[in-house]
Write a structure and sequence with these properties.
The chain is built from five helices and two strands. It is mainly α. α1 packs across α5.
C-alpha cells in the first residue's frame, strides 16, 4: 500500500458510511489524499468538489452536479461538507508528512 492509499483510507474512514458513494471510490479518495498533501487544513469545499468532479467525469459524465461549484445549489454544495471535514480531520493529524493515529 502506498502512502497515498494510506491517507485515502484514513480519509474514507472519517466519512459516515451512509455518505459514501456506491461506485468504486479508490480514485476519489486518492484525489482527496492529494488535496490533503497539497492544501492541508486549508482545503475548501470548492477543492473537494473539483476533485469529485474529476472522478465523476470518469464515473458518470452526465451527472447533474458535474458543474462548477459556484453553479450548484446550496444543498448540493453542502453535500461536499462531510468529505471536507474528513480531509481536514486527517490533515490535522499529519506530522512531518506522516499521519498519526492520535486525533488531537
Amino acid at each position: 500500500m502506498s502512502y497515498l492509499d494510506d491517507l485515502a483510507g484514513k480519509i474514507e474512514h472519517e466519512v459516515p458510511a451512509d455518505m459514501l458513494p456506491q461506485q468504486d471510490t479508490k480514485l476519489l479518495f486518492r484525489l482527496y489524499a492529494l488535496l490533503l498533501l497539497t492544501k492541508g487544513t486549508a482545503v475548501t469545499a470548492f477543492d473537494v468538489h473539483n476533485a469529485w468532479a474529476l472522478w465523476m467525469q470518469e464515473t458518470d459524465p452526465g451527472h447533474p452536479a458535474l458543474r462548477p461549484f459556484a453553479e450548484l445549489d446550496p444543498a448540493t454544495q453542502a453535500s461536499d461538507e462531510p468529505f471536507l471535514a474528513a480531509i481536514k480531520a486527517v490533515a490535522g493529524r499529519v506530522v512531518a508528512g506522516r499521519v498519526t493515529d492520535d486525533p488531537a
